[in-house]
Amino acid sequence: MKLLLLIPFLAMACAPPSDPQTVKDASGRVRARLERVAGKKEGKVQFLNADGSLRTEGHYRADSRNGDWTTVDGSGDTLSILHFNMGKKHGWQAYWAPNGQLLRMEQFQNGEPDGPLYRFFSDGTPRQYTEYKAGVADGAYMEWYKSDPNATGRTTGSFTNGKRSGYWHWTYGNGKPANCGLYINGDRIGPWVKWAPDGSRAGITVYEPKEK
Prior knowledge:
By secondary structure, the chain is mainly beta. The chain is built from one helix and 19 strands. Helices cover about 5% and strands about 65% of the residues.
């Protein structure tokens, strides 16, 4: 029993010492504080603005970013929260505008997009939704376009293994249809219909399958 109690203390005694360090710019201002163990970045790190205020805070493990990393603006409001697993983005990542509006959320798996991506305009209205699997777009896709503050066009479709697939639709800012047609394996196939902004049909183009 006594030997078991001694093991943690022996491990601590054998561990290499931590070496706190500061990084300064050409003017002598401290721009970063970190620790190294056996020459590698290990533990908490802070990156500072020129006035000494905090900009980014996170942790290193064996020279790799690990865990949550947070960036704030000059007022201390959060601009981003990123999560890393040994240097690779992993889990949810989020970004905000200085006014606090969420601009982007996305999910990663071992450094690759894997899951939904959400983007928003500065007024909070949706800007993009895309589904990813193993680093490539795969699933539903929607994107919105503001031609002016009161008009928003939209694209809807889907991807399969990174290529456009199925029926895709475009609308004008006034909500009327703009374009519509079928994708198969990334290629336009069959009739594609175009409309004018007033809703009148502008033409049809028929695409033949490409020779393989």
